[in-house]
Amino acid sequence: MLSPLTLRLQAFTKLSVADREAIDRVSRSSVRQVAARQDIAREGDRPRAVNLILEGWACRYKSLPDGRRQIVSLFIPGDLCDANVLILKEMDHYIGAITAVRLAEIGREQLEALTLDHPRITQALWWDALVTTSVQREWTLNVGQRDAYERISHLLVEMFLRLRAVGLTTGNTCPFPLTQTDLADATGLTAVHVNRTLQDLRRDGLIALERRTLTIPDLPRLKNAAMFNDNYLHLDHEGAHLDAND
Question: Which stretches make up the HTH crp-type domain (predicted)?
Fold first, then answer.
C-alpha cells in the first residue's frame, strides 16, 4: 500500500521502487500523535523538523491578539507542512490539528538525504511546492472575490479532489471533519453565514453533509456553482516525461 506522500507526489510524476521505499522509510520515522484541537507548531517556535501528515486533518493559521483566527491552508494525509520550514529561524504561523493527527517528523539530515539521493523525489517536491503556492493564490481569490455560496462550494470541491488524489474518497463521498467555525475561519465569513450557505447548498441538492461526511451528488454541478477550474491543483500527471521505468 502506497504512503499518502507517495500518492500525492505521484500525481505529478511516477516514482521508482527505490523512491517509494525511501519515502516509506521517512514516513515511519519519528511518528507522533497530536490530539484534536491542539497545536502542532506555534508561532515563535524554532523549527526542528518538517511535519508530514499521515492521518487526520490539520491547518495553517494566523491569529490576532484578540483571538480572531484566519485559516490560510488545510492539511490532509500526504501533505508536508512547509517542506522548506527548516531554513526559518522561527515559525511565523501556527499549525493546528483539526482532528486527532498522526504525523512523521522529518529532520534536516533525512530531508537532505532524500532529495540528494532521489532526484525524482526532488522534482516532485518542486511541483508540490508550486501547487501549494497556486492553492494560496486561489484561496486569496476565494476570499476576495467570490460570494459566500461560491466560496463554500469552491472549498468543498477542492478538498474532495485533494482527498481523491490520495485515495481517501469513496465514490462521491469523503470525510469532512471541519466545523462551521472552521469553515468560517477559512472563508472569511461568520459561522452564521456559513450555516445559512450550507443550508442553501443542501436545498439546491448540491451537497449532503452529515456526521463528518460530505457527499457531492453531482460534482460538475457543484464545480459550476463554485466557478471551479481545477487546473491550479495540477493533478493531471504533468511530469509524465520524468516517470520512472521501474
Answer: 146-220
